[in-house]
Amino acid sequence: MRTNLSTLAVVRNLGILAHVDAGKTTVTERILYATGTTHKRGEVHDGTTVTDFDPQERDRGITIFAAAVSCAWDGHRINLIDTPGHVDFADEVERSLRVLDGAVAVFDAVAGVEPQSESVWRQADRHGVPRIAFVNKLDRAGADLDRAVDSIRERLHPVPLVVQLPIGAEDGFTGVVDLVRMRSLVWADGDAAAVEGPVPESLRDEALRRRRALEEAVAELHPAALEEFCDRETLSAATLTACLRDLTRTGDGVVVLCGSAYRNRGIEPLLDAVVAYLPSPLDVPAVRGVHQDTEQRRPADPGAPFAALAFKVHAGGTGRLTYVRVYSGALEKGDTVADPGTGRTERVTRILRVMADRHIQLDRAVAGDIVALAGPKATRAGSTLCDPGAPLLLEPTAAAEPVVSVA
Ligand code: GDP
């Protein structure tokens, strides 16, 4: 059976990048909650967060081992690849960045850009990972979105495209004005779902001013936006959305959203932005590999020979699992795969989609997907697994070549 290529368009291989303590674990947790993957909210401090399923991680309260978790949002599948935020695990971050198609960079609204956010940002630049920024902790005393955006601009040098205006500040932070649709989103305590309404009268002028600034910034960067802006002196929400998507994917601009993950505010618009702006596996260039000194490119086509990159091996209570990104072709349960790095072939006994709280057994995984495999015993993080009849070694630097040109 040949998989329809258009189904790949709804996949988002997403990473969450942050300085330790900026709220990456809480954002991840709230995403899983908002997408219905988990029905209870884990809290970081009591060690119940579902992405950290290694006891060592729970004990230390930091995410040591990357794990991939799948969830669904608005007809899309989001494969959330956890990237360690701790500086000691730079190699793991690097490895995770290779298999991502896009990322959310989380910042603390009080601290702004911190040294580690800077180093992770630079790594993501090197890998050409398109990003959106989420300024978290808007509920904290001293939180200031504008100041955080200034620090992002000054220290990381992207063109920030702020698409929200906070409603209320610190303890009184209750929602945001969506500057693209010019609607307000207000959250009741503990509820992830926002109540949508018109822009509050008291914020109208400020919202109009910021919408104007957003339109001007986008028109300056995107020819289609410039044309519409010159014709009509304004941009429609549809044009703005399309241009923001293009600018995100080329790295020419970074969409900025805000919220309070702890209070569950801003997570749904963040998911909407992930789906709207970040690329699918079809939007990124074919992966490069070599066989007998000849370079090959493999597109994200389920009909091409199978090739996948192992980015994480996890030996836990569920046995040895190899997390892979499938770059091309399809893999069926029971298939034999080759590791051209070691020359070994091994059988895949199970293909698992890892959800926050359970594993789903699949018969098949296709290009673009991120799954965990049981069976292979010799794979290591960084190993290629491929069709024995069409060997290909994915270069160690396979994704190091920018998938987008980052200015
Ligand atoms: P990580 O180290 O980046 O994974 O950050 P965590 O998610 O573990 O969060 C670090 C600390 O910040 C924890 O004590 C969280 O409860 C807290 N935190 C996370 N998000 C928010 C937020 O939106 N507001 C406030 N006030 N605290 C938060």
Automatic annotation (TrEMBL):
Record-stated family: Belongs to the TRAFAC class translation factor GTPase superfamily. Classic translation factor GTPase family. EF-G/EF-2 subfamily.
Parent-protein start and end of this portion: 1 to 407 of 687
Name recorded for this polypeptide: Elongation factor G
Annotated binding of GTP, by residue: 18-25, 82-86, 136-139
Keywords: Cytoplasm, Elongation factor, GTP-binding, Nucleotide-binding, Protein biosynthesis
Biological role stated in the UniProt entry: Catalyzes the GTP-dependent ribosomal translocation step during translation elongation. During this step, the ribosome changes from the pre-translocational (PRE) to the post-translocational (POST) state as the newly formed A-site-bound peptidyl-tRNA and P-site-bound deacylated tRNA move to the P and E sites, respectively. Catalyzes the coordinated movement of the two tRNA molecules, the mRNA and conformational changes in the ribosome.
Subcellular location: Cytoplasm
Tr-type G domain mapped to chain residues: 9-282
